[in-house]
Structures are given as C-alpha cells and as structure tokens.
Amino acid sequence: MFSEDQWNKIATIPDGTSNVVMVAECNSTGYKWGGFHTSGTGWKRAPNERVFRMAFVGTGTNGECCESGLYSKPDNSGARTGGFFPSNVANYSPSYLTAWGPKVEWPGAGGVHPAITMVLAADGSVRPASDSIDWPVWVQINARQDGVATPNF
After folding, report:
1. pTM above 0.85, yes or no
2. Neighbour tally for 153: CB within 10 Å
3. Does position 63 have pLDDT exceeding 50, yes or no?
C-alpha cells in the first residue's frame, strides 16, 4: 500500500481491501540472519544492534540519512554530522521490504508477539500473520494488484 515513491487510492486495490496488508508491525531491534525469501527464520538482534524506522520521516536512500548537519548534538556543541539519528544504528524509511517475510531481517516486518506479526489490512481490520507464513503468500497479501485474493492469512 505504501512505498517510498507512490501512494494509492482504495480504487487501486482490485484484490480487495481485506486481502491486502497496509501496515505490519516492526520492533525496535529487528531480526538478522534469516533466509531471503523465507518467513520466521531470523534471530532477534541484541540491543546494541538496534535498528529503527521513523514514522513519516524519510531517511534517504537505503536507510542512509540525508539530513547531515541539520540537527544539533545533544549537548548543543555543534551540528551532528550523521543527521538526526544516533550513530552506529541502522535506520530505514517508514516502510518494510516484502523480500523478507516476518521476523527474518531488519528491513522486513516483525513484531514482539511470539509466533505472530500483527498486520493492518487496507480495510482497517487488524489480525495476526503467522511468522511461519509461506513467503509466497506473504508477498501476495502485500500486493495490492496481483490478481490473487488471499483472505486467510
């Protein structure tokens, strides 16, 4: 539903709003080492390996901050050279990539609930998606116009 370079109207969802994920939860540390094109195969990152997404704040290309020099250091001793975001953390624009299923890698979805990731469908309903959801099904429920209606996720 949301991407870094376009927006969509309800009319552009021919698969049905109850069959398309609009938003999925993500946690503040994310996951790592999960298999590409899989679901639920990653390990939770340690607190010192944190990643985050800022809601409605574009972070530049591929998570690289584009606001260098615009914000002050916390002690007011000058401008931050790395932008608004803390150093040594990965940041990403407010979206996730469906190339990874839930709880696989940090650019993908994955919340704090055991065995599930909560999703908001385009019709406004909130429901769980299993962390073991087949990756092709995950891709289908994240596509707004693939011709496949997959209501049971």
Report:
1. no
2. 18
3. no
What is the model's pLDDT at position 153? 60
Checking if the pLDDT of 97 tops 90, the result is no
Does residue 70 share a domain with residue 5? no
CA distance 115 to 85: 30
In a domain, 151, yes or no: no
Rounded-to-integer distance, Cα 60 and Cα 118, Å? 27
Can you tell me the distance from the alpha carbon of 40 to that of 7, in angstroms, rounded to the nearest whole number?
A: 28
Mean pLDDT for the stretch of residues 10-34 = 86
CA distance 12 to 130: 26
For the chain, the domain total comes to 2
Distance CA 57, CA 108 (A): 17
- 100-132: b or e for each residue (b if 16 or more CB lie within 10 Å)? bbbbbbbbbbbbeeeebbbbebbeeeeebbbbe
C-alpha distances in angstroms, 13 versus 4, 20, 52, 93? Answer: 18, 8, 28, 23
Can you give the residue range of the structural domain that contains 8? 1-53+94-145
Do 12 and 26 fall within a single domain? yes
Least trusted range by pLDDT, from 12-21, 35-44, 47-56, 107-116? 47-56
